[in-house]
């Protein structure tokens, strides 16, 4: 599974217009105009594979659709280059999250249970550990592994919510968790630019 930014993604981001203005209207980034463009995104979500999504983003024309939408939104809303980058990462992470939830329903249900069914202190600790693992999108560096106590805690949560679960499901939970964290980070940072 890959979570790095490809050279093409980076090129798309830096091709966006730059202006100085507080960023607003992030919703614009996720509302694609045009039936053909929407169909490409829908097909990508329906056929999502955690093993090939990096390549699928390129081969199915998804990157071009997202970049075109962000470019239009940036012009319409006077987004800065940094806001455009965060909007692009937000829309890409949201799309990947939707695909992952559809292709890995057990992982999606585990994260739903974490958000809704476990005590708040455990939920908050889970997401804090997830944040550590995902890293900081502004750094685009390697993720930091949690300490042993945190790894045991994650294992206990997963075992409680998915008794006898598989390594594959654990990997799906990790991938979905990372997509959610990246989406949240991009959304939070978007408003700062």
Explain what the structure shows:
There is one protein chain. The chain is an all-alpha fold. 68% of the residues lie in helices and 0% in strands. The chain is built from nine helices and no strands. The chain has helices at 7-14, 35-46, 53-59, 62-77, 81-103, 105-116, 120-134, 148-161, 167-190. It is globular. The two termini are 31 Å apart. Mean pLDDT is 85; it is low at 1-21. Keywords: Signal.
Q: What is the count of DSSP helices, taking H or I runs of 4+ residues?
A: 9
- Overall geometry comes to globular
User: Rg, please?
Assistant: 17 Å
**Count of DSSP E strands?**
0
Overall average pLDDT: 85
What keyword list fits this structure?
9 helices; signal; mainly alpha; disordered N terminus; single chain; 2 domains; globular; about 190 residues
Question: Could you give the topology of this structure?
Answer:
Layout: H1 7-14, H2 35-46, H3 53-59, H4 62-77, H5 81-103, H6 105-116, H7 120-134, H8 148-161, H9 167-190
Helix pairs in contact: 2-5, 4-5, 5-6, 5-9, 6-9, 7-9
Concise summary:
This protein is an all-alpha fold. It has helices spanning 7-14, 35-46, 53-59, 62-77, 81-103, 105-116, 120-134, 148-161, 167-190.
């Amino acid at each position: 599974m890959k979570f790095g930014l490809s050279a093409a993604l980076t090129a798309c981001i830096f091709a966006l217009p730059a202006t100085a203005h507080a960023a607003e209207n992030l919703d614009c980034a996720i509302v694609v105009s045009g039936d053909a463009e929407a169909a490409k995104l829908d097909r990508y979500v329906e056929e999502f594979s955690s093993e090939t999504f990096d390549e699928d983003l390129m081969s199915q024309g998804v990157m071009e659709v997202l970049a075109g939408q962000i470019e239009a939104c940036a012009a319409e809303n006077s987004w800065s280059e940094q806001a455009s980058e965060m909007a692009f990462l937000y829309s890409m992470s949201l799309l990947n999250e939707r695909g992952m939830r559809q292709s890995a329903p057990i992982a999606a249900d585990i994260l739903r249970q974490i958000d809704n069914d476990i005590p708040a202190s455990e939920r908050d600790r889970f997401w804090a550990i997830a944040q550590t693992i995902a890293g900081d999108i502004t750094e685009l560096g390697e993720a930091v592994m949690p300490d042993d106590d945190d790894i045991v805690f994650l294992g206990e949560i997963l075992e409680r919510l998915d008794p006898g679960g598989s390594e594959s499901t654990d990997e799906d939970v990790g991938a979905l968790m990372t997509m959610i964290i990246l989406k949240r980070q991009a959304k939070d940072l978007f408003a700062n630019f």
